[in-house]
Amino acid sequence: MLQAIFFVRIMLLINFLCWLLIVLDVDAVHGGIICREARCKPDGPAIRFPFRLIKGKGKQSTHCGYHGFDLSCTDDNQTLLEMPSSSNNLFVEKINYASQEIEISDPLGNIFNFSLSSFFFLVRNFSLSSSPLQFVPGHNNYNYTLFSCPFSEARYYGDFCGMELGSYRFEQKDPENQTYAVKSQCSIDRLPLESCTKLHDYTSIPDISSQMKLHWSKPSCRHCEEMGKACRSKISEYSLARVNKTAERECLDFAEDSSHRGTRIKISVCTVSVAFIAVGALIIYHAYSPNKTEKTNQLRIERFLEDYIAQKPSRYSYADIKRITNQFKDKLGQGAYGTVFKGKLSSEFLVAVKILNNSNENNGEDFTNEMGTM
């Protein structure tokens, strides 16, 4: 009974240690959460590194992506691009991880509304060097110059260098001035800006429409996509500076995260170890139990011989018993605790030899008592 209790305790301890190893292993992988691909809806764009889902079903941990690549899910399962410097958000229609491009839209017209405020919004969020998402270079991109003009002068033209100047009119608090964004490709002779002041130049700005594409250059995971693998960072703390400078990336299979695979390996190792130790413990237990029983029997025999030392009892080996009984040839009878055989110590002395049955439930105690009585 004591051996069984000890065995159970050993098994519980081994299982606890394996469980602790697996938990610590999972917890060591970027804060304990494995980054898995997410979607706001089944046919929506896949969300994975460097993007991260910060709101909605399937929300990911902050370590799963970079700052500036934050996405969220609306109540109707649309994918939104969170803008760090604005309360406005854009819908994400597609994400191409091979070309590292993202297609955004503004179906409600809150941002892409041909106003100077939308122009500033796009410049501030996608043109400045600090932004990880930039406009995709293309033939539809233009350079613009901002001018501040007296408000009193009328500047409404139906067509102004392929675009309506009035569409970029921005009413400021100063009633004496208004600001215009003008394509730099326009000839200065066609610009009614004699009394205007130049403010700033902006380069490679796309036409404002209901949809446009953005791209990111860092982190670069094209080589992972070419191999049909996913990408992730090797560091656990992310900042925009690290994205542009020191962040190292590694490729891993889509089917199974490498950290998850490592956890499965540890589970397998623990399972095999537990089984191996269990088998070993059973072997040791079964080897130990007969040995202990044998020692108990030997001790009982020694005590028996000491108790009847006055009768000068003799000790014989099993080989001697077989010789005395002529290989147990002559059976005299069957007792309660064993079988009686005829034996011969010498030509003059005949003896009866009783052999204990193996099925005796009292480990020979009754048999010993019977011998003592005789």
UniProtKB/TrEMBL annotation:
Pfam families the UniProt entry points to: GUB_WAK_bind, PK_Tyr_Ser-Thr
Entry keyword annotation includes Disulfide bond: no
TM helices/strands, residue ranges: 6-26, 267-288
UniProt KW keywords: ATP-binding, Membrane, Metal-binding, Nucleotide-binding, Signal, Transferase, Transmembrane, Transmembrane helix, Ubl conjugation pathway, Zinc, Zinc-finger
Domain of life per record: Eukaryota
Known catalytic reactions: S-ubiquitinyl-[E2 ubiquitin-conjugating enzyme]-L-cysteine + [acceptor protein]-L-lysine = [E2 ubiquitin-conjugating enzyme]-L-cysteine + N(6)-ubiquitinyl-[acceptor protein]-L-lysine
Family in the record: Belongs to the RING-type zinc finger family. ATL subfamily.
Listed name of the protein: RING-type E3 ubiquitin transferase
Naturally occurring in which organism (per UniProt): Prunus avium (Cherry)
Gene: LOC110771050
